[in-house]
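Summary for the steering committee. The consortium agreed at its last meeting that each partner would contribute one worked example illustrating the joint modelling workflow. Our contribution is presented below. We chose a case with several input lines so that the handling of multiple components could be demonstrated. No manual editing was applied between input and output; the record is shown as generated.
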Amino acid sequence: MSTQPAPVRRDPGYAGLTTPVETLPASWYFDSVHHERELSRIWYRNWLYVCRASELAAPRSFRTLDVGDQSLFVVRGENGEVRAFHNTCRHRGAALCRTAAGAFPAAGIVCPYHSWRYSLRGELLRTSSQVHGDGFDVHDYSLFSLPATEWNGFVFAAFTRDPPPFARSFDLPLGRLDDWQLGDLVIGHRLQKTIACNWKVFWENYNECLHCPGVHPRLAQLVPIFGRALLERRDDPDWQDHAEDNDPKYGGGLRAGAESWTMDGQPVGVLFPGVSAEDRQAAHIYLTSVPSVFIVAHIDYVRVVRLLPLASERTAMSIEFLFLPETLNTGRDITKAVEFTDIVMSEDAAVCELNQRGLHSLAYHAGVLMPEEYAIRQFQDWVRSELARS
Ligand code: FES
Ligand SMILES: [Fe+2]
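What follows is the complete predicted structure of the assembly.
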């Protein structure tokens, strides 16, 4: 007698995957030739987060951004405008910036090698030769300019003249976090780590919460729905049973009595005054710009997590904690927010490194995505489509 498998219940609107999906090939996470391909097709073609505008406040200040063997710099013009250029001199190609951050002299951008001098707009002002060869025209040797944009106090640039429209690199409308006055926020702290994993391992881990109960006991307690290995209400196939239930276990948000992502759930900073009751309740709103950064808004601080690939199996992570100026001016102790993030991020870094090690197994060629990993599927589809883009 054959038995029919019981029909699977999936309520309408269920977010999960309904069939198993094969992951990206294992070699894409460590093969150096493939890594170069991803640098060219993804990292050199999309908008990348460079720094906060406040780190580039004074005219003539600059910051470099290095990815793979490429380097660009952004510079604040005398008129306040931010511009980006390839970090290379038009004479014989020397890098123009000796340091990762600094300020150019009043004379402008002076090449450290033979002192060619450029304006902050990138025009070649003078060479160091006695005379120029016939036909040499300084106008033909401006710096190679690149797109740069300042958005809500964040400076972004791209290694290509024609990146996709800026708003398209984000997963939500650009105005989603306007209530947080992002442009006015100041950096209260920065954490930096180097993780021994491919940059995609980091993004994949970020895109699922299947690991949350086992890997993040403290976070799973603070955010009860994460404790169920789910990110959102509709990740549960039976979500309609609790559609109206606002228990955070079903609806998201923090455990009773907690208001922010800190060690004791209590806010450490002055609260953002304009945040809606609904967003306050949600307690964390994510805005993501692949491949370089995600921003998480809480009721009293904003966390900016940026990644940069250092090599096929090494990724730099930097986390900035942004606050209203009042929070820092009044000397509030922000340690409990930093400590909490440090714990969660260290837990993530540890599993990312385990993931990376296992990917090398002779037996493993590709894995499988489970229903809760629908956002990884979107990420992997995006990676594939970027690689296929001519
Ligand atoms: S390489 Fe820059 S002036 Fe010669
Ligand atoms: Fe995690």
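Residues 205, 211, 215-216, 348 surround fe (ii) ion (ligand 2) (CB under 6 Å). The two ends are 55 Å apart (CA to CA).
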